[in-house]
Design brief:
This protein is an alpha/beta fold. The chain is built from three helices and six strands. The chain has helices spanning about 1-15, 50-65, 155-170, and strands at about 20-25, 35-45, 70, 75-95, 115-135, 140-150. A six-stranded mixed β-sheet has the order 1-6-5-4-2-3. A hairpin with a 5-residue loop joins strand 5 and strand 6 (about 140-150).
């Protein structure tokens, strides 16, 4: 029973490492109520036109739902999207066998007692990061920055859901100051 509890805890820790990370920051002196229109551009391409279009459309839709209007000329705010991917590694170690009490009184240590072995595997995965910068188009001042990082799936449907979730989290209390107290 104890092994099952430990194995369950290890599985939980392993999955927690892949949780989506979303952060936001904004200029507290920026006047978000003056912003009525915006345009969206790719600032740093991640060289996947399908993904870039999907994310541009998602961010556009989210901002429109927040009351801003998308325009092609003379916007109040310019939204720049930056993307990057990075390979990361995960180490998983599994122990098997029973350890006895060793010379130092610790289970499985000290060279006396049970037999056991450890196997470590390395898995690589791709993490994508999206940065959403919103600038005042006239002053060029950065008003808002949102970042989201998550593991990229091989399945486009999963990535679409992750982008929707990241956008919802990033713009939950947007525009800043609009949250009811």
């Amino acid at each position: 029973m104890r092994r099952l509890a430990i194995a369950s805890a290890l599985v939980f820790v392993g999955t927690a490492a892949f949780a989506q990370d979303v952060k936001t920051d904004f200029d507290k002196s920026a006047n978000f109520s003056a912003i009525k229109t915006f345009d969206v551009k790719i600032g740093t391409s991640w060289n996947n036109q399908i993904s870039e279009k999907r994310i541009t459309d998602e961010i556009t839709q989210t901002l429109v739902e927040k009351g801003w209007q998308k325009v092609d000329t003379n916007p109040d705010a310019l939204v720049l999207l930056h993307g990057a991917t990075e390979k990361q590694k995960n180490l998983n170690t599994f122990y098997s066998g029973m350890g006895g009490y060793g010379a130092y009184g610790y289970r499985g240590w000290g060279g006396m007692g049970g037999m056991g072995s450890a196997t470590t595997t390395v898995s690589e995965y791709l993490v994508g990061t999206l940065v959403v910068d919103i600038f005042d188009a006239k002053s060029k001042a950065l008003m808002f920055r949102g970042t989201a990082s998550d593991e990229i799936s091989d399945k486009p449907e999963k990535n679409i859901k992750k982008v929707e979730k990241a956008s919802a989290k990033m713009f939950k209390d947007f525009p800043p100051g609009s949250k009811k107290k």
